[in-house]
Input
Amino acid sequence: MSFSELFESGFKKRNEDHFAAIVRVAMSDGIIDKEEKEFLDRLATRLDITESEYKTILKDYKSHPINPPASYDMRLERLYDLARMVWVDNIEGPNQVALLEKLCVGLGFDSDNVKYIADKALTLVHYKLDLDEFTEKMKKMNR
Output
C-alpha cells in the first residue's frame, strides 16, 4: 500500500465514522424520517460514502467510533452537521440534545462546556446559518 493510499483510507474511515455518528443522532428516536433520510443522502454524497457503505453503516452504526478531528474548524464543521441533524429531527425530547452533548465530547469539545456549545449550535442552525456563518459565530462565543 502506498503512502497516498494509506492517507486516503484514513480519510475515508474518518468520513465513515462521522457519517455513522450522524446516523446515531438520526436513530436516537428509533426511526429515520423523510427529512433525515434526505439529509443523510446529501451528506453521504458529500462524504463520498458509497451505497454499499451507506447500507452497512445504517445496519451497524454503533460499531463506528467517534474520532475527534484534530483541527477546531473540522470539529465545528462536524458539530454543524450534527446540530442540523438534531434540528431536522425536530428535537422531540431530551434524548437528541443529550446525544448531541455526548457527541460534542466525542468531537473533542471541553466537557464542562458541552451544554452551552450544544445549545448555541442548535440555536444557530435554527436560524439556518450556513457553515461559514456558523463557524464564525461559534468562534466568537469562545473568545
